[in-house]
Amino acid sequence: MQSCRTALIYSPLFGNFNYGDDHPFKLQRNRLAFDLLDAYGLLELPNMQIRDCQPASDELLLSFHDSDYIARLKEFSSSEEPRADFMYGLGDAECPVFKGLYECAALGVGATFEAVRLVEEKTVDIAFNLTGGWHHAHRAKASGFSYLNDAVVAINWLVARGRRVLYLDIDAHHGDGVQEAYYDTDQVLTISLHESGIYFYPGTGFEDEAGEGRGKGYSVNVPLLAHTDDAIFMKAFDEVAYPLIAAFNPDIIITQIGADTFRTDPLTNLEITTHSYGEILSKIKRLKIPWVALGGGGYDLLNTARAWTLAWSIMNSVELNPRLPPAFIDKIVPLGYQNRVLLDAMHWADEGERELALAAVEKSIARIKKTIFPGIIGSYGAPS
Ligand SMILES: [Zn+2]
């Protein structure tokens, strides 16, 4: 896909919303990412376009979400007054009620829908929505900074058009909301690599969550221990995700590419760098499957800017100078950022910790090869 056509979905309206000054989810990270993309000249490439988006319609949202839940979101969204409804997960520290929250969430879904529509209608080969990837939203419950599940709404639209979809989630957190939506169908294969739920939000995503009924074998989880580093992360991708993607051979692949796996993220305990992140995205690109990427998590804002810039450069087959552009450094110095590089060297965790993480992932891989692979891949990878 040398001359592949790409679209970046962007709405300046996201800058109007704020989860709260103390909340770790900062929509201003989009601005920082845009500044870095601009500094590298990545907003003016020959085969790319920047597309605005509209809030998702009620009709689209109702393909997944509960109508009473939507009504409550709209009601809470319209006032500054502090409100809470814990049945719907609204009003706690994770999912605060703020003015415009419905408009913000519906715009995020609209952005992902636009990305998916452009790829489905073959206007572009790859589309990237920085703001999407709210993978924790449930049918009638907000959770983990997610109010509406953009990926599920967009995938439902594809499934209704008869498409086979693969959802790959490499965010630090388990893609629980998306898994749940497709737990009983074989039309969507969900694969999530994430920090283990033993001690970590959302507490799910173990290997034995493998789907049910027709969906048995179509939910795949690789839980990773704290201190999982680049080599271990790539091993999980290479030995589980990659062969399953190739064997399932979807019509379209949706990836949630959160950068909260990075070792300096304040909320998580993995030790990933741009090294394995870039390797994985390059391998996905080489598969030449129509591809939609969603930004996902990332609570060190410079990391999200670096990660998404790298992702966009890979989607467009552009090699970047590993040192950040001087104009961008001038912007981030006053913000207190020390980092001067786009690309990190491959990182290895401390020996004792990495031995534990490696042993755990090897066990998970062996288990998945035994339980999942025979159904999707046939004899390949089956236990001897
Ligand atoms: Zn996350």
Q: Gist?
A:
The protein is an alpha/beta fold and 384 residues long.
Averaged pLDDT, please? 95
CATH class: Alpha Beta
Ligands, deduplicated: zinc ion
- Relative strand content: 5-15%
Helix content: 25-40%
Instruction: Provide the spatial order of strands within the biggest beta sheet.
Output: 2-1-3-8-7-4-5-6
CATH architecture term: 3-Layer(aba) Sandwich
What is the count of DSSP helices, taking H or I runs of 4+ residues?
12
CATH superfamily: Histone deacetylase domain
Poorly predicted runs: 379-384
Q: SSE order, as H and E?
A: EHEHHHEHEHEEHEHEHHHH
| Secondary-structure content class | alpha/beta
Rg, alpha carbons: 20 Å
What overall form do the CA principal axes indicate? globular
**Oligomer designation:** single chain
Write down the domain tally: 1
N- and C-termini, Cα separation: 37 Å
Task: Characterise this structure.
- This protein has 384 residues and is an alpha/beta fold.
- The protein is 37% helix and 10% strand.
- It contains twelve helices and eight strands.
- Helix 6 links the parallel strand 4 and strand 5.
- The C terminus is likely disordered.
- Zinc ion binds next to loops.
Strands, helices and their partners?
Elements: E1 6-9, H1 29-39, E2 48-51, H2 58-61, H3 67-77, H4 101-120, E3 126-129, H5 150-160, E4 165-169, H6 176-181, E5 188-195, E6 219-224, H7 230-248, E7 252-256, H8 274-286, E8 291-294, H9 301-315, H10 326-332, H11 351-371, H12 373-377
Parallel strand pairs: 1-2, 1-3, 3-8, 4-5, 4-7, 5-6, 7-8
Zinc ion (ZN) binds at residues 171-173, 258, 260, 297.
